[in-house]
UniProtKB/TrEMBL annotation:
It holds the Pfam family tRNA-synt_1b. The keyword ATP-binding applies. It is found in: Cytoplasm. Residues 348-422 form the Tyrosine--tRNA ligase SYY-like C-terminal domain. Coiled coil: none annotated. Belongs to the class-I aminoacyl-tRNA synthetase family. TyrS type 1 subfamily. GO terms for molecular function: ligase activity. It comes from the Bacteria. The gene is tyrS. Its EC number is 6.1.1.1. Catalyzes the attachment of tyrosine to tRNA(Tyr) in a two-step reaction: tyrosine is first activated by ATP to form Tyr-AMP and then transferred to the acceptor end of tRNA(Tyr). L-tyrosine binds at residues 46, 181, 185. This is Tyrosine--tRNA ligase. It is an enzyme of class 6 (ligase).
Length: 429
C-alpha cells in the first residue's frame, strides 16, 4: 500500500519544522506552542471537509496530506465530513451557494468519507476516526443552539471575519444562513474537544476566520487554549487559481477527472511552480527535492521535476497501475509505444483530452483533419496527406481521398496525427 511507504523526512527535528519547510504554515496560533505540541506526546487534531460536491479536489488534497504528515509523527487524526455544515455551505467571496437537498448531501458525505479514509491510515493506535457533525447538530433545537452556543459570539467580531466582510461589501450581501456558518464550525471544534480532547484544527488560510471561531469558543467556554494552522492558498506563479483547468476543478474522483487528465495537469506545471508543488503534494524528502530544484535550474529542458511530480501525485491519488497506464498512453500517443496495447478506458480518456470528433466509418480523413482543427481547410488537409505528414494510429496515410473504412471499426477509436506533435481523437459511431 502507498500509505505503508510514506514517511516524514528524518532530516528535520520534528514535524513542525517539516511543515514550515514545505510551506504549509501560512498563519497559525502560537508557533512556539505548536512546535512543542507536535514534538511531544500524541495529540488529537482534525480537519473538516464539506460535501458541497460528490468529490474532493486539489485544495482538499493539501489538507489531507498535511493531516497525513502529522499522523506520521504519531498524532491522532479526526476526519470530519460535514453532514450539517454541508447543508449550509461556507460563504463564498461573491455569492450565495446553491443549497443541495438533504438526500444529496447525505450521499456525498459517504463519497467524501471514502476518499478521506484512503489518505489517512486506519491502523494502529493513531488510526483515523471519521466523524460527521450532523451527529451533534441534527437533534439540536434552534433555541438550544442560540442559548448554549450563540450567546458566546459577538456580532461585531463576526462581521470582521474576511469571508463575511467581503460579502457585505458585495452586491450579493450575505444571508443569515451563511453568516452563521462560522458559529457551526466553532461548535464542531468545541464538540471534538469535549468528545476526543482535540486540540488542533487545520484548514486553508481562507478559512482562518472559521478556524479561530473554534479556538475562541473553546477558550470562552472551557478556559483552555487550543490551536489552529492555516495552510496557504495554492496559486500559480502568475497569480491564477491553482487546480483549475479550462474552468474545471481537478477532482480526486477518477470519474470526474480521468487519471490521464490528472497526470497531464501535473506534467504541465511551470518551472516556477514545480518545486513548491513537490514540497506540498509529495512525500519526497528534502534532499531529493533539492536535487530536482537543481535540475530545474540547470537542465529545465529535461523536465525531470515535472515528470517526477506527475508520477508521484498520480500514484498517490489513483495508484501505481493507473499511473503506469497513463504514462503508457502518453508515450503511445506520441509514437513511442504501442497504441494497441492500451486498455480502452485509458485510451478514451486520453483522446477526450485532445481535440476530437465523432464520425462515421466512411468519413474522409482530410475532412477529419478539418473537423478536429488540425488544418484550416479540407484542401489543406489533402495537401498535408500528400506531403506525407498525416498518420492514423501511427500508420501513415498516403491517399488524399482516404477514408476510415477498413482502418477503424464502428465503436472504435483512433489517433489522428499531423506532423509529430499535433494530435486529435477520432471516435467512430
Amino acid at each position: 500500500m502507498i500509505l505503508d511507504s510514506q514517511q516524514n523526512d528524518t532530516s528535520f527535528a520534528d514535524v513542525w519544522e517539516e511543515l514550515v519547510w514545505r510551506g504549509l504554515v501560512h498563519v497559525s496560533t502560537d508557533q512556539a506552542a505548536l512546535k512543542e505540541l507536535l514534538s511531544g506526546e500524541p495529540i488529537t487534531y482534525y480537519c473538516g471537509f464539506d460535501p458541497t460536491a460528490p468529490s474532493l479536489h486539489l485544495g482538499n488534497l493539501v489538507q489531507l496530506l498535511t493531516m497525513r504528515r502529522i499522523q506520521l509523527a504519531g498524532h491522532k487524526p479526526l476526519g470530519l465530513v460535514g453532514g450539517s455544515t454541508g447543508l449550509i455551505g461556507d460563504p463564498r467571496p461573491t455569492a450565495e451557494r446553491t443549497l443541495n437537498t438533504k438526500e444529496t448531501v447525505a450521499e456525498w458525505v459517504g463519497h467524501l468519507q471514502g476518499q478521506v479514509s484512503r489518505f489517512l491510515s486506519g491502523e494502529g493506535e493513531n488510526a483515523v476516526r471519521l466523524v460527521n457533525n450532523l451527529d451533534w447538530t441534527g437533534e439540536l433545537s434552534a433555541i438550544d443552539f442560540l442559548r448554549e452556543i450563540g450567546k458566546h459570539y459577538r456580532v461585531g467580531t463576526m462581521l470582521k471575519k474576511d469571508a463575511v466582510a467581503s460579502r457585505l461589501n458585495s452586491d450579493a450581501g450575505i444571508s443569515y444562513t451563511e453568516f452563521s456558518y462560522q458559529i457551526l464550525q466553532g461548535f464542531d471544534y468545541l464538540e471534538l474537544f469535549r468528545l476526543y480532547g482535540c486540540v488542533l484544527q487545520t484548514g486553508g488560510s481562507d478559512q482562518w476566520g472559521n478556524l479561530t471561531s473554534g479556538t475562541d469558543l473553546i477558550h470562552r467556554v472551557e478556559g483552555v487554549s487550543v490551536h489552529a494552522i492555516g495552510t496557504p492558498l495554492i496559486t500559480n506563479s502568475d497569480g491564477s487559481k491553482f487546480g483549475k483547468s479550462e474552468g474545471n476543478a481537478i477532482w480526486l474522483d477518477p470519474e470526474m477527472c480521468s487519471p490521464y487528465r490528472f497526470y497531464q495537469f501535473w506534467l504541465n506545471s511551470d518551472d516556477a511552480d514545480v518545486i513548491s508543488r513537490l514540497k506540498v503534494f509529495t512525500f519526497l524528502g528534502r534532499q531529493r527535492i533539492e536535487e530536482l530544484a537543481a535540475l530545474v535550474e540547470n537542465e529545465p529542458f529535461r523536465r525531470e521535476a515535472q515528470r517526477t511530480l506527475a508520477n508521484e501525485v498520480t500514484t498517490l491519488v489513483h495508484g501505481a497501475d493507473a499511473t503506469a497506464a497513463v504514462i503508457a498512453a502518453s508515450e503511445a500517443l506520441f509514437g513511442q509505444g504501442d497504441l494497441a496495447a492500451l486498455d480502452a478506458d485509458t485510451l478514451e480518456s486520453a483522446l477526450r483530452e485532445l481535440p476530437n470528433t465523432t464520425t462515421s466509418p466512411d468519413a474522409q480523413i482530410a475532412q477529419l483533419l478539418l473537423d478536429t482543427g488540425l488544418v484550416k481547410s479540407a484542401s489543406e488537409g489533402r495537401r498535408a496527406i500528400a506531403q506525407g505528414g498525416v498518420s492514423l494510429d501511427n500508420v501513415k496515410v498516403d491517399d488524399e481521398t482516404a477514408t476510415l473504412e477498413g482502418r477503424v471499426a464502428p465503436g472504435g477509436m483512433a489517433v489522428l496525427r499531423r506532423g509529430k506533435k499535433t494530435l486529435a481523437g477520432i471516435f467512430v459511431e
